[in-house]
Amino acid sequence: MSTTRYPFPGLQDLPEDIRTKILEVQDKAGFVPNVFLAFARRPAEWRAFFAYHDALMVPESVGRKSGLTKGEREMIVTTTSAANGCLYCVVAHGAILRIYEKKPLLADQVAVNHRKADISPRQRAMLDFALKVCNASDQIEDADFEALHAHGLNDEDIWDIAAITAFFGLSNRMASFSGMMPNPEFYLMGRIPKPKA
Amino acid sequence: MSTTRYPFPGLQDLPEDIRTKILEVQDKAGFVPNVFLAFARRPAEWRAFFAYHDALMVPESVGRKSGLTKGEREMIVTTTSAANGCLYCVVAHGAILRIYEKKPLLADQVAVNHRKADISPRQRAMLDFALKVCNASDQIEDADFEALHAHGLNDEDIWDIAAITAFFGLSNRMASFSGMMPNPEFYLMGRIPKPKA
Amino acid sequence: MSTTRYPFPGLQDLPEDIRTKILEVQDKAGFVPNVFLAFARRPAEWRAFFAYHDALMVPESVGRKSGLTKGEREMIVTTTSAANGCLYCVVAHGAILRIYEKKPLLADQVAVNHRKADISPRQRAMLDFALKVCNASDQIEDADFEALHAHGLNDEDIWDIAAITAFFGLSNRMASFSGMMPNPEFYLMGRIPKPKA
Amino acid sequence: MSTTRYPFPGLQDLPEDIRTKILEVQDKAGFVPNVFLAFARRPAEWRAFFAYHDALMVPESVGRKSGLTKGEREMIVTTTSAANGCLYCVVAHGAILRIYEKKPLLADQVAVNHRKADISPRQRAMLDFALKVCNASDQIEDADFEALHAHGLNDEDIWDIAAITAFFGLSNRMASFSGMMPNPEFYLMGRIPKPKA
Amino acid sequence: MSTTRYPFPGLQDLPEDIRTKILEVQDKAGFVPNVFLAFARRPAEWRAFFAYHDALMVPESVGRKSGLTKGEREMIVTTTSAANGCLYCVVAHGAILRIYEKKPLLADQVAVNHRKADISPRQRAMLDFALKVCNASDQIEDADFEALHAHGLNDEDIWDIAAITAFFGLSNRMASFSGMMPNPEFYLMGRIPKPKA
Amino acid sequence: MSTTRYPFPGLQDLPEDIRTKILEVQDKAGFVPNVFLAFARRPAEWRAFFAYHDALMVPESVGRKSGLTKGEREMIVTTTSAANGCLYCVVAHGAILRIYEKKPLLADQVAVNHRKADISPRQRAMLDFALKVCNASDQIEDADFEALHAHGLNDEDIWDIAAITAFFGLSNRMASFSGMMPNPEFYLMGRIPKPKA
To answer: Would the CB atoms of A187 and B91 count as touching at under 8 Å?
Structure first.
């Protein structure tokens, strides 16, 4: 079994801003996703990574509105992370995708074969483009943009699709090379209805 | 969304032996896995398919003992079906894998990247070999056999690994081309403890 | 030189039904094609394999009529077996293809490059589809079906093409991994006119 | 000819911190590398991108010492960017590589075929690893780490190689998809001795 | 069916030296292999092509002795031409291979899967190297040379293997792009014993 | 660092015709490109190689007019040599391309990604075709010819594109396997205006 090749730092050894953010996440999610600890050994990289993450995945946090829904962003992450064979991102973002889209089956579908997934034609076009950015970005041509325009996606939306794919391509490579494993909590999240209070 | 390209026959229109087997499966599983209905439109192929399936996956049913455990057989199916991008088999056999191994996280692990899965070195070697049979069977050499012998697997075990991979390569192609979708029930099976009676 | 990794059982050690069938084949062909002996070491798999084979390749034997000719079925086998690098199936089924089509050059053509073969546009479309089922079944789309419909092939014909490809994908993997070599008799069959009686 | 698909913002329209940084770069380099303008249309992404860049490529700026030389870092960028077919990064970072290493031929060598480049065995091992992170990060194994350890590289150095590769994989995808072209000035930089003052 | 895209010139329209050579070949073989006519439309290229061919394949004609046998040279041609999907060269040189080696089964074996062919370990090593020159010449390393040295092949032999592979890579591309079809006579050559006079 | 695996012969040991030609080249270029020495160890191959080269690249020398410009021919060489990872040809022919086209940036562009290069649509189509001949000549179809006809290229031009690609595919394999390194002079040629007399 693979385990992380780089031990996690202790929370108490982290810079204040990072520790605070991690404790917030823990408070909200009930656990600390491993990526927060795995990257914290290099605080400057941690800060840049999460700033980039938030700029793309939480556009409101930087005063931007995205033409993609929250679920569509996670769909892109899950699909391209599977193409990159990244266990951490498929499991963690598959969980978030299930929750955002309220579709417990969707993450497994896009991870194995997005052509079989229960998604709209517009979403299918988004994922086709994302996979081309993931696998053959040097071959992107005007025709690829036109295929997305035909579904009502504009150039800002296309930037979003490409940038999310590119950013998680970075994340996938970091997670895979370093042996970062998904927290067990992610595997089941969003698969069953939350118990009512 | 993809749906099956070939309508399922009605149970009442099936030959007696096939209907009986399907009702037995329904009785045991609580639902009829789609593969039983999808293939039933061609009874002769249905009978051969399930006879082959049972000969490999339920060796006791043909008076044979296999050196692989039930869980190992399903591990091979799930891993190679993911390599073939077969949604039906990854979801259905991933479910059975979770149940047999009593490891709710394992199926997702081997489907995304078997190198990161919580398995033994012997199982890792089995899956490496299975993937070579799946992707490059023409390049199998003596060294591939020796790598398995080193883990205590004998030539009958190797036949099992190869034959299971080859058989589900058939199954993967049939499911993918025909648009066979996994039953929703499979997605959650084996992820949470069964409620006690 | 490669030789079989699994010794053939003696005819006298085989179950009655298998021995009978093998003797029939020998009677008709003048020799026993190695696949009959190679798989006989596992009788249940042997029976399922040949039942499946006959259901697809001898549809009359199961009361079905196929829209593909006998030659077209062998064309699919030869082409996809070459794509899988399976010596046994290319040589054995290439022989049968030559005989059925009465075209002594055809098998070598489709094995090396089906785009250069002396076949009809309909057959070219069949082989293009078969190769996609062989190499990228997860990417089969509606457009692939439409391309075949345009040549007058219906969904039953398409099932035949896909199933034959899938079944021989199994056969290719079994032959290659186990070191099954083609009988020398196959290489020359159908290349020269039979001497008249 | 390809041109950028996203018009550059005017300097006067940029946030103060970004404009200041860009003017500093212009002052130092004599021109503004297009990446600074291309990404500035999204200030939050710009800030995260360059923060990440500096954390990896100018480790001193974040109080870290790297076991890789400046030239080695650029070697990794140039080699993996060529593997990704990214014109901008090959040309821009090839220029910087020539300057840092004072080897006017090196960038062309690693871009076309790093196996033919005038580099040390340690650097060859670094580039082999970087290309594996670039092309097959899901297949990184302990043996890949050991190959680098054998050249005296430790796990922090390996993190550097992987992270630089992953970060520029992001950069490559962004540049390629958006049609970002290298500034003409880069092509000749470092190829001829600077004229003395 | 594919046919040549470039009509053959008439013998009477060819330069004297080319016509003479072609008539000699016809006299010896009983027919004119299509490559002689297909390339004759460009006499300068024809002369260079056959000069190169003879320098490599008939080394005695240029006063050189090769460490490879005639059969080994044709083995290399047949194997790499199959890898390039070149129908003309597989069929034509497969014929010559059968004749030189007096092994009627060999050409089909190396064309489909050289790993299964009835050849010596030294020949297997030669073909492995030839396929690497064919498919990934940029990755040839010292270890590839050493593997051949271990079988007693020296650097001149290795030059022969590489040059033959490279030359027929040219030939394969010319034949495939131009639609050059093998003469029907080749298919059967060397498969049956010559009738005695 | 890679160096040539085959020592160059001394000029004084070469046959008269080869020595003369080499001295002419040296006189004109100011140095002897390594390919002239590397291949001279086998005079018959040297003569055929350069005869073929001139027939394709200097068509006037054999009384032929080509529809491609000198620059277009070098564009094809540089692009396909990069696809083959051949350092010698990318650097040497990139130099000649810069000189012929008087575009100092062009060679780097086509070597890294011809889709981003400053070329005409006709040239883009030529390079697309050349890359298909380079990478998948067995898949060339009528549609590939039609795409070139649409740009006013006729079948003789297409023969030129294919033959240049095929010939340099040979050259690339010879250079890469034998460790032939580009002369340092090539790297800078055509990048800066020639000093006026």
So the answer is: no
Closest-CA residue of A relative to F112 is A138
B85 contacts C137 by C-beta, under 8 angstroms:
yes
Residue A58 has pLDDT above 70, yes or no: yes
Using a CB-CB distance cutoff of 8 angstroms, which residues of chain C are in contact with residue B169?
166, 169-170, 173
In angstroms, the CA F192 to CA F172 distance is 27
All residues of chain F having their beta carbon less than 8 Å from the beta carbon of residue E133 are 173, 177
Query: Smallest CA–CA separation between D110 and chain F, in Å?
Result: 9
Q: What residues of chain C lie within 8 A of the CB of A79, using their CB?
A: none
- Which other chains touch chain B, taking contact as 3+ CB pairs less than 8 Å apart? A, C, D, E
The three-state secondary structure class of E131 is helix
User: Model confidence over E112-144: pLDDT tens digits?
Assistant: 999 999 999 999 999 999 999 999 999 999 999
pLDDT at residue B3 is higher than 50: yes
Residue to mutate among A75, A79, A84, A87, with most B CBs inside 10 A, is A87
Considering chain E, what is the average pLDDT of its residues?
A: 96
Q: Is B171 left (phi over 0), alpha (psi -120 to 50) or beta?
A: alpha
By CB atoms closer than 10 A (0-12, 13-18, 19+), residue E9 is: middle
| E7 pLDDT more than 90 | yes
Residue of B nearest to D140 (CA): B115
Tell me the C-alpha distance between A195 and E192, whole Å: 78
CB D180 within 8 A of CB D171: no
- Alpha-carbon gap, residue C2 to C176, rounded angstroms: 10
- How close, in Å, is residue A197 to chain B by CA atoms? 20
Q: What is the DSSP letter of A102?
A: T
* Residue C167 contacts B where some CB pair is shorter than 8 Å: yes
ipTM of this complex > 0.90? yes
- Find the Cα–Cα–Cα–Cα dihedral F58, F64, F65, F69, rounded to 10°: -20
Q: Does E113 touch chain B (CB under 8 A)?
A: yes
Give F-chain residues touching C115 at CB under 8 angstroms: 138-139, 141
Angle at B37 between CA B36 and CA B43, to 5 degrees: 80
Q: Using alpha carbons, select from A44, A37, A45 the residue that is nearest to residue A4.
A: A37
C20 CB near a chain F CB, below 8 Å? no
| D121-166 pLDDT per residue, tens | 999 999 999 999 999 999 999 999 999 999 999 999 999 999 999 9
Q: Are A160 and D116 in contact (CB under 8 A)?
A: no
Residue ranges for chain F with pLDDT beneath 50: 1
Contact C29, C190 (CB under 8 A): no
Q: Is some CB atom of chain F closer than 8 A to the CB atom of E138?
A: yes
Q: How many residues does chain A have?
A: 197
Confirm or reject contact between E49 and chain F (CB < 8 A). yes
d(CA F184, nearest CA chain D) in Å = 7
Q: In sequence order, what DSSP letters do the residues of chain B get, joined into one string?
A: ----SSPPPPGGGS-HHHHHHHHHHHHHHSS--HHHHHGGGSHHHHHHHHHHHHHHH-GGGGT---SS-HHHHHHHHHHHHHHTT-HHHHHHHHHHHHHHHT-TTHHHHHHHHGGGSS--HHHHHHHHHHHHHHHHGGG--HHHHHHHHTTT--HHHHHHHHHHHHHHHHHHHHHHHHTPPPPHHHHHTTTSPPPP-
Cα D17 to chain center, whole Å?
23
pTM exceeds 0.95, yes or no: yes
Question: Per the CB < 8 Å rule, is D176 touching A52?
Answer: no
F191 neighbors F98 (Cβ within 8 angstroms): yes
Query: Distance between CA atoms of B49 and C49, rounded to whole angstroms?
Result: 9
Q: Is F188 on the interface with E (CB under 8 A)?
A: no
Can you tell me the distance from the alpha carbon of B75 to that of B77, in angstroms, rounded to the nearest whole number?
5
Residue A1 has a pLDDT of: 45
* Subunits adjacent to chain C (3 or more Cβ pairs under 8 Å): A, B, E, F
